[in-house]
Design brief:
Length: 371
C-alpha cells in the first residue's frame, strides 16, 4: 500500500496500468507483431537493408583468371517514430482528498480508486493506438492522421501519412505479366468458377520472387473470404482430401490453418471507434494480406524514449531538477500538480513513442479478391 500522495502519483506507480493491459481493440494479429521490439533513444531510428542473392557463379576455363564479382547493394532506411500523448485533468475534488492524505486512511482508498478508475480508459487509448497502427500497416500499407492528431480509416483529410512502402504492383489485383489480363486476380473470388488455388499459388510465387525469397506464411483475411472459398468449385474439389479443413470452412465459417500451405487469420472483428464513436473497420471484407514469417529480418516494432519526471511535485532548482528526470521507453504515464484558473489540479499525462516497420515490403501483398 502506498504511504503518501507522492507515492500514489509517481511515474513508477502509474506506468504499470498502461503497459500491462487488456487490449480494447479485438486483436487476432500474430503476437510477434507486438513482441519483436527494438528500443531506440529519442524518436529517430534507422536500419540497413541487406540484399541477398540467388544468382549463380559464372563459369570460367580452368586456369584462367577469375571474373570480377559485383558486390550486393546495401540501403539505409531512416525513420521518425510516432509520438502520441494526451493528458487528463483530475478535478479539485481529488486534490482536496489528497491534501490531508497521511492523516486520514480512507482518503487513500478514495484517491486510489479515482486514479485507477479514470486511468482504465485513459491508458487503453494508447494500447489501442498501437494495435490499430500495426493493423493498418498490414491492411492498407499506410497509417493516416489528421491535423488534430486523430487516427483515420482512410486518406481523406490526412495530413500525416506513414507509408510502409508496399509496391503498387503488390496491391489490388496484383500486377503479373504472365497472368491473363496482366493481373493475378483476373476473375473475382465471388464467382464459383474462379481458380482461387492458382491465384493464391501465383501470389506465393511472386512474393518469393519480388520479396527476396521471403515466401508468404500468413494470410490475414476479411469477412467475405470464407464464403467465397466454401462455394468455390476448385476449392471444393480439394475438400474430399482435407475433410477437417472443409468442415472448418463450411461449419465454422473460418479458413483453417495450413489451407493452401498458409496460416489464415480472420480479421473481421477488428475495428476501432473514431472521435464520433463510429465503428471503423480496419480490414476490408474482400481483401487478403499475404505476409512472410515475422522475424527481425521482416519486421520490427521500434520504441522510442522521452524524459519525464520521476516524482510527483516540485523537484527544486538547478541539478535537482535534472536529477528528477528519467528516460522512459515506449508507453508510460506520469502526474504533476498544476493551478488551472487559480484552482489546484492534478494532471495525468500518458504517452507512447513507437513505429511498426515492415522491413520487407516487396514480400507483402494486399490483394483485392473482388475487383
Amino acid at each position: 500500500m502506498a504511504e503518501n500522495a507522492s507515492t500514489l502519483l509517481t511515474y513508477v506507480h502509474l506506468t504499470p496500468t498502461v503497459t500491462v493491459v487488456k487490449p480494447g481493440i479485438p486483436n487476432p494479429l500474430p503476437k510477434k507483431l507486438f513482441s519483436l521490439t527494438m528500443d531506440v533513444p529519442g524518436n529517430k531510428a534507422q536500419y540497413i537493408e541487406l540484399y541477398g542473392t540467388r544468382k549463380t557463379a559464372r563459369r570460367q576455363p580452368f586456369g584462367a583468371p577469375p571474373r570480377v564479382a559485383l558486390k550486393q547493394p546495401l540501403d539505409q532506411v531512416s525513420m521518425l517514430l510516432l509520438q502520441v500523448a494526451q493528458q487528463m485533468v483530475f478535478e479539485q475534488e481529488l486534490a482536496t482528498q489528497l491534501r490531508e492524505f497521511a492523516s486520514y486512511t480512507p482518503q487513500y482508498k478514495f484517491a486510489e480508486q479515482e486514479v485507477a478508475f479514470q486511468g482504465e480508459n485513459f491508458r487503453q487509448t494508447f494500447e489501442n493506438t498501437r494495435i490499430a497502427s500495426v493493423a493498418f500497416s498490414y491492411s492498407q500499407g499506410k497509417i493516416w492522421w489528421d491535423a488534430d492528431g486523430k487516427l483515420l480509416p482512410s486518406a481523406t483529410n490526412a495530413v500525416v501519412t506513414i507509408d510502409q512502402r508496399i509496391p503498387a504492383a503488390n496491391t489490388g489485383t496484383v500486377t503479373d505479366t504472365n497472368s491473363v489480363g496482366g493481373v493475378v486476380v483476373n476473375s473475382p473470388w465471388s464467382l464459383p468458377t474462379t481458380d482461387i488455388v492458382t491465384q493464391v499459388n501465383t501470389i506465393k510465387k511472386l512474393a518469393a520472387q519480388r520479396g527476396g525469397g521471403y515466401a508468404p506464411k500468413y494470410a490475414l483475411y476479411g469477412t467475405n473470404i470464407p464464403g467465397y472459398i466454401s462455394q468455390n468449385e476448385v476449392c471444393q474439389s480439394l475438400f474430399p482430401f482435407f475433410k477437417e479443413q472443409a468442415q472448418a470452412i463450411t461449419k465454422q465459417g473460418i479458413v483453417p490453418d495450413d489451407f493452401l500451405g498458409l496460416t489464415w487469420v480472420p480479421m473481421q472483428n477488428m475495428f476501432y471507434q473514431d472521435e464520433s464513436d463510429v465503428n471503423q473497420e480496419i480490414f476490408r471484407p474482400d481483401y487478403v494480406t499475404f505476409l512472410p514469417e515475422i522475424d527481425r529480418n521482416t519486421y520490427t516494432l521500434f520504441q522510442g524514449s522521452r524524459l519525464i519526471p520521476k516524482n510527483f511535485g516540485v523537484a527544486g532548482t538547478g541539478l535537482e531538477v535534472l536529477d528528477n528526470y528519467i528516460s522512459v521507453t515506449g508507453m508510460g504515464r506520469y502526474a504533476y500538480p498544476d493551478f488551472m484558473g487559480g484552482f489546484p489540479m492534478i494532471v495525468d499525462v500518458g504517452f507512447d513513442t513507437f513505429l511498426p516497420q515492415i522491413k520487407t515490403p516487396n514480400a507483402v501483398f494486399l490483394v483485392n479478391t473482388c475487383p
